[in-house]
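Hey, resending since the last one bounced:
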Amino acid sequence: MKARLAALALALITVPAAAQGFDHSHAAWTALLRRHVVVLDGARASRVRYTELVADRSALEAYVSSLAAVTRSQFEGWPRAERLAFLINAYNAHMVQKVLTRYPDLRSVWDFGRFLGNPFKDAFFTLLGQRTSLDGIEQGMLRKPGAYDEPRVHFALNCASVGCPMLREEAYVGARLEAQLEDQARRFLSDRSRNRYDPASGRLEVSKIFDWYEDDWPQDYLARHAALLADDPASRARIAAGEFTLVFLDYDWSLNDAMK
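The structure tokens again:
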């Protein structure tokens, strides 16, 4: 009996941490975000203290290692919300990891290159048992037809750029994912540097993400969110009625660095 108990104890010690149960609270990622994300403009934008993150890099590497330890069979056994939160957090954490490989000599993620070294297409990490890229998460998993069909992920993914929806100051978690995604939508749509209505011209000027991912949004998405896109009742009524000229704003690819 003692021999069997000893063997069981040894087996538990040697089983990979992921097999013993992944931390769906993503507490390690939240701790990093709380320390290094600076929330701005009434929580509608944020910047990252990359200088401090460099010194905290071991904690980031430990977190992404915990993501890499998750097997595909484990992942596929999770509820939808937990899978979605895992992928969003993985994208954001690996984006930060990528920035740190060149920081502080980086002004934009495109300094990595648009063809060779493309930060979104470079397969620089392992997830669910295979080498993949940021595009592999976004285009191959999150936007895969029929997988999630959740356009609000575009408000949650952060590409380390000023023009992106803000990097949230906490990890996404399955238990609160719906509320978090709704809050991200509210923050982003009400950010006048990214989305705004000009009553004089009737122009609804919105982020390029509504152009790039046009097929992901219901046709009436902007009209249904008129209350967030304008500050006065008359403008909101015009947007809700579809009485606007849609214009896509230039995207600011400057690094979202709190120190610059």
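Residues 196-248 form one domain.

Sorry for the duplicate.
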